[in-house]
Amino acid sequence: MSQSKPVYASFKSIGAYVPEKILSNADLEKMVDTTDEWILKRTGIKERHLAADDEYTSDMGAKAAKIAIDRLGISTEEIDLVLCATVTPDYFNMPSTACIISDKLGIKNVQALDISAACSGFVYLLSIAKAFIESGMKKNVLVIGAEKFSSIVDYTDRSTCILFGDGAGAAVISASELEEEKFIDVHASADGSYADFLVTPAPGCINPVSQKVLDEGLNFVQMKGNETFKLAVKTLTKDVKEILAKNEIKSEDIPHFIPHQANYRIIKAVGDALKMREEQVVVTVGKYGNTSAASIPMAINDIWESGRLQNGELMLLDTFGGGLTWASALLPFAGKSK
Ligand code: ACO
């Protein structure tokens, strides 16, 4: 009996979309009791981009996806699965943002679905894309992280409004027979006992839309910032150490460590714990803030566009978010260099 060749998932292209409008720390100083100095020192964030009132998560996701598809040079007809990670979907529950993005891109008769894993969403999707491709079910999976986080932020709450931004990033993950292009490993996990660390209480079946929801602002994101911070440093460090050890790769041999961009102090603490050199660690939080599921693909796009990420180079992704969820991935960039 002839054996078919193994097929691998490979990361073939990247794209991103950043909305035009900028919300600077100086702008926030006029809105809440905060200072540019406090925000910079505690988070490393200088500014974040916000979508226009009539610009939605699906618009940003579709724009990022179109760039990723065009860069790969395939047609939308070749995409056979559309996955979107978001906690700020166009609509509560249905239709999914992935369905709307598919329609905006002219992708028809193809499976499309959203997942909710907060900031870990994009890396979660990589594990799903890998499984679909390596099982032989799909060939070109469009993977999108897109957020209009400003739609769930209370701009009178200084503990959260300084942190978040809007944007989208997308990748095409394709089937490849080349072993050197394959995802080396993806690890995704969760612990729901910390669900109250990061929560948007409404709308949902616990708190359906009501006057109470509006009066108490239950539709806005709530975060136990300090507790989340400590757990983020601990979990991200442990997760990266595990994936590196399991695959017998040393941290100094990683050219691009791309952590979730939530807070520069978290990134620095994890980088230091792993003994990473400054040039290995990708930092974009200063200009985008925390864009949740879009943060990692936006960061990958940044280093691709600047020419820093080249074909064949290894990426180590590491993320942490509401749920609580966390995930890491070790994979080469298998697309064209810029
Ligand atoms: N400006 C000025 N002072 C502030 C501000 C502000 N914007 N925000 C809080 N403070 C004050 C607090 O009121 C507090 O004052 P007090 O000491 O008088 O009570 C003081 O600053 C310290 O507050 P902390 O919350 O302890 O500040 P911390 O150093 O922890 O920084 C921050 C807060 C930036 C939110 C940090 O905790 C953090 O980044 N947390 C993790 C975020 C994260 O990783 N999230 C996960 C992913 S997000 C997702 O999944 C969607």
Tag the structure with descriptive keywords.
Peroxisomal Thiolase, Chain A, domain 1; binds acetyl coenzyme *A; 2 domains; 11 helices; 33% helix
Our Rg estimate from Cα atoms comes to 19 Å
Structural class: alpha/beta
In total, the number of domains comes to: 2
Count of DSSP H/I helices: 11
CATH class of the largest domain: Alpha Beta
Mean of pLDDT: 96
The general outline is globular
Distance between the termini: 43 Å
Number of β-strand runs: 13
Main-sheet strand order equals 1-7-6-4-5
- The CATH topology of the largest domain is Peroxisomal Thiolase, Chain A, domain 1
Portion of residues in beta strands equals: 15-25%
Low-confidence stretches: none
Specify the oligomeric state: single chain
Can you tell me the CATH superfamily of the largest domain? Thiolase/Chalcone synthase
Q: What is the CATH architecture assignment of the largest domain?
A: 3-Layer(aba) Sandwich
